[in-house]
Design goal:
Bound molecules: adenosine-5'-triphosphate
Structural class: alpha/beta
Number of helices: 12
Radius of gyration: 21 Å
Shape: elongated
Distance between the termini: 48 Å
Strand order of the largest sheet: 6-7-8-3-9-10
Length: 313
C-alpha cells in the first residue's frame, strides 16, 4: 500500500517580484510523524506554510493537503488541519478555558466536548482558569495548540513553535508534540532553524535552503545511518540531458550541479543509485562516476548555514 501523505507539493514556486522565496519545492510529508522543516532564516519556511494554508498564492506548482488538492478543495482540507503561523492571539482578560470555549462554541457539539481534554493534553489543566494575560509565552503557545485540537486535526502545522521559549518551555513543548504524534497518531509539521530541535523532536525532516529542498527523509536516512547514503555525485558527459532525464522522477529529491557533476538526493533504498545509472544510460547520457556522499546531518546543516553567514548582508 502506498504511504499516506498529508502534505505533497510538486514544483511549488513562490515569487515576490524578482525574489524567489520557494523554488520548485517537492515535499512529501508522511502521516503519523513529527516532520521538521529545517532551514536557516530566510530559507522559505514561513512562505511554504503560508502558501499551503492559502494565506498567500503560489506562483506555480501544485499542492495537496490531507490528500486533497488545494486551493481547489482547501476549505475541506483545512477542516482537519490546525495551524499556528504567528504567535497565537487570545482575549487576555479571559481565562484559557474561556478562550477555548469561545472557539468551540462556534463549532459543533463534539468541539465543545474537546475543551477539557485539549487543556489537559497541552499541560494547562491546572492553569486553565487563570486569565491569559498572566500566561508565559510557552503557556500561550501551548494554549495555541489546544485551540487547534478543538478541531481534532489530523495535521498540525506549527511555524517555529519554540521561538522565544526558555529551555524548560522547549522541553515541555517537545514532550507535548511527541504525545500528539505517538499517543494520538496525529501528524505534526513544524518549521525550525535549529538542527538540535528537529533531531530531538522529529521522526523525519526536510532541509530547505534558498527556497529549495536539499534533502528529505527519515532522521536515520538524513543522518546517513539506517539505510545509508541517500545522496550521490554523478559524473556525466551531458549535464543538461542528465537533469532532464531525472527531473520528473518522483524518487529523485534535489538535483544540483556541483563542480561539473550532478548531486542527486533521494530518500529510501541506496540501491536506487543503480536505477539512477540505468535511467541516465537509457536517456543516452554517459555516466563515468557514481559516488555516494556520506555526510552527517550536522555537517550538512553547518555547511548550509556557514555559507549563508559568509554572504555579506
Ligand atoms: P525566518 O526563519 O527568518 O522567518 P523563513 O525560512 O521563514 O525565515 P521566509 O519568511 O519564508 O523564510 O522568507 C523567504 C524569502 O522570501 C526571504 O528572502 C524573504 O525576504 C522573502 N519574503 C517573504 N515574504 C515576503 C513578502 N511578503 N514580500 C517580499 N519578500 C518576501
Amino acid at each position: 500500500m502506498p504511504e499516506e501523505l498529508v502534505v505533497e507539493t510538486e514544483g511549488l514556486t513562490k515569487r515576490f517580484g524578482a525574489r524567489v522565496a520557494l523554488d520548485g519545492v517537492d515535499l512529501s510529508v508522511p502521516a503519523g510523524v513529527a516532520f521538521g522543516f529545517l532551514g536557516p532564516n530566510g530559507a522559505g519556511k514561513t512562505t511554504l506554510i503560508r502558501t499551503l494554508l492559502g494565506l498567500t498564492r503560489a506562483s506555480a506548482g501544485s499542492m495537496k493537503l490531507l490528500g486533497l488538492p488545494v486551493p481547489e478543495q482547501r476549505a475541506r482540507a483545512l477542516q482537519r488541519v490546525g495551524a499556528i503561523v504567528e504567535e497565537p492571539r487570545f482575549h487576555p482578560h479571559l481565562t484559557g478555558r474561556q478562550n477555548l470555549q469561545i472557539i468551540a462554541a462556534a463549532r459543533d457539539e463534539a468541539a465543545r466536548g474537546r475543551v477539557d481534554g485539549a487543556l489537559r493534553r497541552v499541560g494547562l489543566a491546572d492553569r486553565a482558569d487563570d486569565k491569559v494575560k498572566g500566561y508565559s509565552l510557552g503557556m500561550r503557545q501551548r494554549l495555541g495548540v489546544a485551540r487547534c485540537l478543538i478541531a481534532d486535526p489530523h495535521l498540525l502545522i506549527l511555524d517555529e513553535p519554540t521561538n522565544g521559549l526558555d529551555p524548560a518551555g522547549i522541553q515541555e513543548f517537545r514532550a507535548m508534540i511527541r504525545g500528539l504524534v505517538v499517543e494520538e497518531g496525529r501528524t505534526v509539521f513544524l518549521s525550525s532553524h535549529l538542527l538540535d530541535e528537529v533531531e530531538k523532536t522529529c521522526d523525519a525532516a526536510a532541509i530547505v535552503d534558498q527556497g529549495r529542498v536539499l534533502v528529505q527523509g527519515t532522521m536515520d536516512q538524513l543522518k546517513g545511518t539506517g539505510t545509508g547514503a541517500n545522496e550521490v555525485i554523478v559524473g556525466v558527459d551531458d549535464l543538461d540531458a542528465a537533469q532532464r532525464a531525472l527531473a520528473d522522477d518522483p524518487r529523485v529529491g534535489a538535483l544540483n550541479e556541483a563542480d561539473g557533476a550532478l548531486r542527486v538526493t533521494f530518500a529510501g533504498d541506496p540501491a536506487f543509485a543503480a536505477e539512477l545509472n540505468r535511467i541516465l544510460v537509457q536517456a543516452g547520457v554517459a555516466v563515468y562516476r557514481l559516488e555516494p556522499v556520506r555526510q552527517s546531518l550536522e555537517q550538512r546543516f553547518l555547511e548550509i548555514t556557514s555559507r549563508l553567514e559568509a554572504v555579506p548582508a
